[in-house]
Structures are given as structure tokens and as C-alpha cells.
Specification:
five-stranded antiparallel beta sheet, TATA-Binding Protein, 191 residues
């Protein structure tokens, strides 16, 4: 009888060891899966971040058209205002003198003025295609003079706005705006 009890204990001990070993293996596998799954979902390569940063990267003067004026700052800006005021399709919304604003807080700035103007018949269809275009409308033209006395006229390229805002099916409107801005700024710059 003792021998049977002894064999019984031996069998039970083996089953316990087997069960413990099985639990140990299961625990190890679960731990392995947990850590490996965690690593798979956590991208530490910065690939995603770099791709998004590259997509959003803005290069120098991207989307800007800049023309050098053949006239003085004051003459260039006055001519620009005159052209816009005498066009029945355009309406001046605002004019800002950045140099005066800088002086009001004790800072200096070379002559820099911006005029905001628009034509709702042309701007509205762009916003109907992509409302975010309203961030860049009404149109703005900047006249500035650098430290060397060079006067420039700058404005947003309407074709860049198409790309920036995802404007679709408005080629005719964008071409018309591009042509008008080119004509206005060339005349103001004396080109």
C-alpha cells in the first residue's frame, strides 16, 4: 500500500510540475506577445513625423509672386491704390501701414504697406470650392522697400492657393485672377 501511495504522490508531483511548467510557458508567451505587440504599434522610427513635416514644409517664398518696382515706394503704392480704386469690379477693404504701426510701439521698420481688396464675383466661387480659401481672401498686395531702397510688390500666387486649399474646377476663375493681379502689379511697378 505504501508503494501505491508513493507512486500516487509521484504522479501528483509530476502533474503539479507539469502544470507549473505549462503556466510558466503560458506566462512567458503572454509577456512576449504583450511586449512585441506594444513595439509593433509604437512607431519609434520618426518616419511618420518626418513625412508629415515634409508635407507641411514651406520653402522660401513659396506661393509668392514678387516684382521689383521701377518707381519709388510712395509712387508705387499710390499708383496701386489708384488702379484698384478706378476699377469698378474691385473694392478696397483695408489699407495697413506697417511702418506706422511699428513706430507706434517704438520700433522701426522700412516702408511697408499692404492693401486688401476684392471682387466677390471671383472670390466667392473659390470659397464655394474650398471655404478655407477665406484665409487668403480678400486679395492682398504688399509694397515694401528694403535697406537698399529697392521697392518690391508681393502677392499670393492664385495657382498656389489652388494647391494650398484644394480648390477644384475653378481654372477659369483662377486664370482670370492671376491675369488681373499680374496686370495691376505690373502697372503699379512701372513695368
Amino acid at each position: 500500500m505504501e508503494m501505491i501511495v508513493s507512486k500516487f504522490h509521484l504522479i501528483i508531483e509530476e502533474k503539479i510540475k507539469y502544470k507549473q511548467m505549462k503556466q510558466s510557458i503560458i506566462f512567458t508567451l503572454c509577456a512576449f506577445m504583450l511586449f512585441s505587440c506594444n513595439q509593433a504599434t509604437k512607431d519609434t522610427s520618426n518616419t511618420t513625423k518626418n513625412t508629415e513635416e515634409e508635407r507641411m514644409e514651406i520653402t522660401s517664398k513659396q506661393g509668392l509672386i514678387i516684382k521689383k518696382s521701377t518707381q519709388s515706394f510712395d509712387k508705387t503704392y499710390s499708383k496701386l491704390v489708384d488702379i484698384i480704386e478706378n476699377n469698378p469690379n474691385l473694392k478696397i477693404i483695408a489699407q495697413l501701414d506697417h511702418q506706422v504701426n511699428a513706430a507706434s510701439v517704438g520700433l522701426t521698420l522700412n516702408p511697408t504697406k499692404i492693401i486688401m481688396f476684392g471682387n466677390p464675383k471671383l472670390g466667392t466661387p473659390l470659397m464655394q470650392s474650398a471655404q478655407s480659401t477665406g484665409l487668403d481672401l480678400p486679395q492682398k498686395i504688399l509694397v515694401s522697400q528694403d535697406d537698399h531702397g529697392i521697392v518690391q510688390i508681393s502677392y499670393n500666387d492664385p495657382q498656389y492657393l489652388r494647391q494650398r486649399h484644394g480648390i477644384e474646377h475653378k481654372d477659369e476663375v483662377l486664370t482670370k485672377i492671376s491675369g488681373a493681379l499680374d496686370k495691376i502689379t505690373s502697372a503699379a511697378a512701372g513695368l
